[in-house]
Each structure stands twice: as structure tokens, then as C-alpha cells.
User: What shape does this take?
Amino acid sequence: MLKKTGLNERQIKAVRYIKKHGSINLSDLKKLIQGVTEKTLYRDLQGLGNKEILIEIGEKKGRKYKLSK
Assistant: This one.
């Protein structure tokens, strides 16, 4: 289902994590996916926001992401 939306594997893992835990932040994602730069993970989260899959809550370091639907 998630593959058809054009998401990469990291984004799919992030969405699955949110479904299980309710939200995610950048440090959660860094623990979940290792060997990738923080900047890349941030871009993955931004991409999910741009596709209106996630909504951002909070500012800068305290920002969390939740499913928009």
C-alpha cells in the first residue's frame, strides 16, 4: 500500500513507526534508521509533509510529526 505512494523505504519505516507509536521526531528516526545523515532523514520527513501524509507539530528541536489522516 505505502509503496504505491512513491515513498522510499525510510519514509515507509517512519510512517509505520508513527502508526505504532503515534508520532515521530528526528531523533526517533535516527535510532530507527542508521547509516543515513540527519539531513537526509529530515528531508524524508519534509517530503512526507509535502505529500500531506504527515503534519508538523512544534518548532525546531521540539518538532514532532504525526499522520495527517
